[in-house]
Structures are given as C-alpha cells and as structure tokens.
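=== RUN LOG ===
request id: a7f3
mode: sequence -> structure
chains: 1
length: 207
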Amino acid sequence: MLAIQFNERVIDYKDWATILFVLSFVIVAINKNVFQVRFNEFIRLAISDKYTKIYKDSSNMTSGFTISMLFVQLFSFAFFIVLFLKQFEISKTTNGILFLQVFTFISVFVLSKYLFEKIIATTFKIEEFNEQFNLLKVSYRTYFGLLLLPINFILFYNPSLGSNWFYIVIINIIVISNLVTYFVALKMYQNVLIRKIFYFIFISLHP
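=== RESULT ===
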C-alpha cells in the first residue's frame, strides 16, 4: 500500500509589495510631472547643491513634494530592512505584516526624532534654523531613498542574489547618506556652526 506524505506548502504572497512598489513609482512619476523644475534639481543632488539653496525655506518642509517623497523614503528604507531580515534569516518571510511593523517603527522613530530636535531648537531659540536644517536632511535622505527604490525592487524579485549585495547597499546607501548629509550641512552652515555648536552636538548624539 502506497504511503501518502503531505508536505506543507508555504506561499509567500508578493501582491502587497507589488502594490506598494507601483504606488511609490506613481508618486515619483507624478512629482516629476507636477514639479518638473524642482524634481530635475532634486535628482541632481549628488552632483549639485543648487536644490538645497533654492528650496531651503522652512515652508518647503510641509510641501506636497516633500511629504510625498518622504513616503517613498520611508517605504524604501523599511522595505530594505525587511529584505535584510529575510536575507540573514532573522525573519522567515517577507510578508506584509512584517513590513507594516517595520514601516510603523521607522515612521514613529522619524517623527520622534523630529519632535526631539524641535524641542532642542526651541530651547536654543533657533526654530527657523532647525526647520532649514531638517529640510536639508530630509532632502538628502529622500534622495538616497529614491536611489534605494529600484535596488529594493531588484533584490525582492531576484531572491537568488547573494548577501554581498546587502553589504554593498548598507555601506553605500545608509552609512554614506548620513555622512554626506552632515558634511553638506556643516559646509552650508559653517558660518553659524560655532554659535550653534551645542545644537549640533545634541542632534549628533541623538540617532
């Protein structure tokens, strides 16, 4: 008599990721068409600081372009963390629930950091400067988040790629993005650095 053996079939649905990827690319496409001049300057951030000089006014922090691109940034970094957890078997699957948890954590962390810096800026009476500085950081991190978006897409739909890809991305996207952000900030605000040295120390110590 033949023995019938049942094996568990694990299905990792990717529809949720596809929808979010499409949504992110749609946001980028809309911004490219609605804010043509601004978007063209934005994508040149790696070779020119013209964007940060033109759109340094604090009112740009709450503009439609900044907020929508911030979503793309949060999605990119959250999705990369999910891929990282899956690649190194910290998590067994890349499901939507895990992504939602990571996305929520990063969003709360970013908001908490923003509020913390706002409190410090109020203490030192440099609210306007703080808004400009935050806008600068958001711009560069959003830029690197945009670069990370297609990398996430490739890694997610090509799971056979080795872990070396993750090391390259971590070093070149996450670490360097933060270093570049602070380097550009120090360069732009070097004239006021001495007067606001304690503010820079506080925000540097806070991740």
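=== NOTES ===
The chain has nine helices and no strands.
The longest helix spans residues 127-157.
=== END ===
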